[in-house]
Q: What sequence folds into this?
């Protein structure tokens, strides 16, 4: 396939693999009108690996993660994703939770959407793990930014995704929240999940990283 052709292929589990890579990008580019926000990005991320994406503000980190998460399409280049869309967990800058609902109601809604088996048990486990159990019935409008970020992480992980894509997951978290997230990332890596993490603090996830990309540098 010519490099200029745009392709994003999702393979079902058990399908014949073209590559062992869960994510493969070649000459990836994204434009919005005349503005190019991502240019000539190439990498492979193997199953169970952890890719750390860094770079200054405006370098295209969030754009790259949105492409990987299936929320945007490349303008040019090749992007292959080796898991089904339903097996991707995505956390962006917006928490994607309903402020008028409680934590329980939000996660139950997403659990139904994803068809999570034994979702009540899974929801309870995540809320407890991220320190939100006592606030589970409160409306999200009453949550602090840190609590909302914790709930957004619960949402992204609710369906036990195989590919976890996190854009600045440590943002707004207090020391306790940071420690909880660090422990969860370690658990995900140990379980063989594939991780893509964009961060301004690569040292925080360096122990997990199997690869890295620095955007915005020639």
A:
């Amino acid at each position: 396939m010519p490099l200029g052709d745009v392709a994003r292929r999702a393979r079902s589990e058990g399908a014949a693999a073209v590559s062992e890579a869960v994510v493969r990008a070649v000459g990836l580019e994204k434009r919005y009108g005349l503005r190019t926000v991502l240019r000539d990005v190439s990498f492979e991320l193997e199953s169970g690996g952890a890719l750390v994406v860094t770079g200054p503000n405006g370098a295209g980190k969030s754009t790259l993660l949105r492409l990987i998460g299936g929320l945007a399409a490349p303008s040019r280049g090749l992007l292959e994703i080796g898991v089904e869309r339903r097996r991707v967990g995505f956390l962006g800058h917006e928490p994607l939770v309903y402020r008028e609902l409680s934590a329980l109601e939000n996660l139950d809604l997403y659990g139904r959407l994803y068809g999570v088996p034994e979702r009540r048990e899974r929801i309870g486990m995540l809320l407890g793990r991220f320190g939100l159990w006592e606030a589970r019935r409160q409306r999200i409008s009453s949550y602090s930014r840190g609590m909302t970020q914790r709930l957004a992480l619960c949402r992204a992980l609710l369906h036990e995704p195989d590919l976890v894509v996190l854009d600045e997951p440590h943002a707004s978290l207090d020391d306790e929240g940071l420690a909880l997230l660090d422990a969860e990332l370690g658990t995900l890596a140990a379980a063989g999940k594939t991780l893509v993490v964009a961060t301004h603090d690569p040292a925080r996830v360096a122990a997990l990283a199997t690869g890295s990309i620095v955007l915005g540098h020639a």
